[in-house]
Amino acid sequence: MPGKFCVSITSAKDNPDKATVGFVVANAALGSEQETLVFLSVEGVRLSQRGYADAIHEEGFAPLKELMENFARAGGKIYVCSPCFKKRQLDENNLVASAMIVGGAKLVEFLADGAPCVSY
């Protein structure tokens, strides 16, 4: 039975290196047969919007759009912090694949059995 792994991302275009590395690690966790969740909060919630990550490509890494698409295609889940999302007045009808807007309780539920979480 696979374990669980969480990657928390608080950055987007304000720190594309952190956003990119977060999805690199999330894809690695999926590749290691972990049930993997990316939690987007603070500025990271902007990554939940289709088209936002299209131009983000940090040197030495695959484009962020590709990393995010691979993550969703492989079965990864993306939780988007509801209060952070609402504060930024983003469009809930424009979410990327596998993203859902949730409250903090859903994150706590995922982590409650001791799942590790790294933050970027």
How is the secondary structure organized here?
Blueprint: E1 4-9, H1 16-31, E2 35-40, H2 64-73, E3 77-81, H3 82-87, E4 99-102, H4 104-111, E5 117-119
Parallel strand pairs: 1-2, 1-5, 2-3, 3-4
Helix pairs in contact: 1-2
Short characterization:
This protein is of the alpha/beta class and 120 residues long. Helices cover 33% and strands 20% of the residues.
Describe this structure in words.
- The chain has about 120 residues and is of the alpha/beta class.
- The chain has one domain: Hypothetical Protein Ychn, Chain: A (3-Layer(aba) Sandwich).
- About 35% of the residues lie in helices and about 20% in strands.
- It contains four helices and five strands; from the N terminus they run βαβαβαβαβ.
- It has helices at about 15-30, 65-75, 80-85, 105-110, and strands spanning about 5-10, 35-40, 75-80, 100, 115-120.
- A five-stranded parallel β-sheet has the order 4-3-2-1-5.
- Strand 3, helix 3 and strand 4 (about 100) form a beta-alpha-beta unit.
- It is globular.
- The model has no long low-confidence stretch (mean pLDDT about 95).
Number of structural domains:
1
CATH class: Alpha Beta
Number of strands: 5
Count of DSSP-assigned helices:
4
Straight-line N-to-C gap: 27 Å
The CATH homologous superfamily corresponds to DsrEFH-like
Order of helices and strands: EHEHEHEHE
Shape: globular
What do the pLDDT scores average to? 97
CATH topology (level 3) name? Hypothetical Protein Ychn, Chain: A
Q: Spans with pLDDT under 50 lasting ≥5 residues?
A: none
| Rg calc | 13 Å
